[in-house]
């Protein structure tokens, strides 16, 4: 027997039962971004491998072991995008978008990382992200973080915790790196395999380890804020003041470093305790040198990405449902001429932009059977077209959710007005 075809491990189908919640979240988030002046950018899912190696950094989880990289038929090395920022910067340079003025962009879509699949961690997952280019002032950081806070508010999500830190300048990170290396070398025996590898190449990354056995060692490690350069310290202190003024609560986590190389100065994460170990829903930071590093003019920038799977999980945990869809009207008819008339009527009703979902019964059987199916389809109104109705140019309208059975036979021309009247009557009855 042929083996069953299945989706690639860690890549999920989003079935109709879940897509309303996704669309609800996406639409609300997009509305918040647009209100803040962010414009959408859509980019390829595949980029030259070199783009990610040069931006995210060679010695990072993503580039070392998570990328979907392949040679295409020309022998070019390509990679399924593991994140969005690198592509946005690549496109911005390529199309001359960085002209000195402020540029606000958002994107959305699937990202790909070859990780071990588990709750909150998939191989194809989805992010909505935003990037703001063109200013180094902390007001930009504060505004962007406040925008993410507004996203949770818009969705009705409580209890996300904001953690912030500053990574300082490149030089400050260099000095800190040496201190940290010294510290971890002294504790070499306690390190795991990943951390031993990072000890020489990128000791900061050890702070980002998810291994609980290392938690105590990491907690006792030298702390980054003590090594901050004066400018970065002032920048960070100003950010804290601004967040206070905005009423955005935060905690400073001196060991927050983020898993990508391009960050400097501000980094932040929004964390939930309701999602188990995979609690980071949204993460971001400053990357003031990345545009220049990829060949563009110097352009300070800050951005974030939020993971939609984790966000949707959190909404479900909090019992947040998408709003009920528009009503459903169900057309029951006798096969033949009546059904043809029903088909025409359905098309006329659907031609209106504010129409509800209009469903035709195609399975047949008597009206009793058809109305059972109407009920199953969640219809609130059944429109019945039998021989009598056809002959008289009428339709029978039946309210399926009314506490009292309500049914009227009316001229096709009066149909819309009748439905409106019946629904209003039903609502006032319910009150
Ligand atoms: P983590 O620490 O959980 O590995 P990360 O630092 O790799 O996350 P980022 O690259 O900053 O994550 O991505 C931003 C957000 O995207 C994360 O906070 C998370 O919500 C989501 N995300 C990242 N990787 C995955 C994944 N494999 N599956 C589902 N969501 C993910
Ligand atoms: Mg990761």
Write up what this structure looks like.
- The chain has 431 residues and is of the alpha+beta class.
- It has 15 helices and 16 strands.
- The strands form 3 sheets. The protein has an 8-stranded mixed β-sheet with strand order 1-5-6-11-10-9-7-8. Strands 13-12-14-15-16 form a 5-stranded mixed β-sheet, sandwiched between helices.
- The mean pLDDT is 92.
- 39% of the residues lie in helices and 20% in strands.
- Magnesium ion (MG) binds at residues 61, 259.
- Adenosine-5'-triphosphate (ATP) is lined by residues 83, 113, 115, 120-122, 125, 127, 259, 278, 280-283, 305, 307, 309-310.
Shape: elongated
Rg on CA atoms, Å: 28 Å
State the helix count: 15
Low-confidence stretches: none
Oligomer state equals single chain
Instruction: Give the cofactors and ligands.
Output: adenosine-5'-triphosphate, magnesium ion
The CATH class label of the largest domain is Alpha Beta
Q: What gap, in angstroms, lies between the N and C termini?
A: 60 Å
DSSP strand tally: 16
Share of helix among residues?
Answer: 25-40%
Largest sheet features: 8 strands, mixed
Structural class of the secondary elements? alpha+beta
CATH homologous superfamily of the largest domain, by name?
Bira Bifunctional Protein, Domain 2
CATH topology descriptor of the largest domain? BirA Bifunctional Protein, domain 2
| Range of strand content | 15-25%
The count of domains is: 2
Per CATH, which architecture of the largest domain? 2-Layer Sandwich
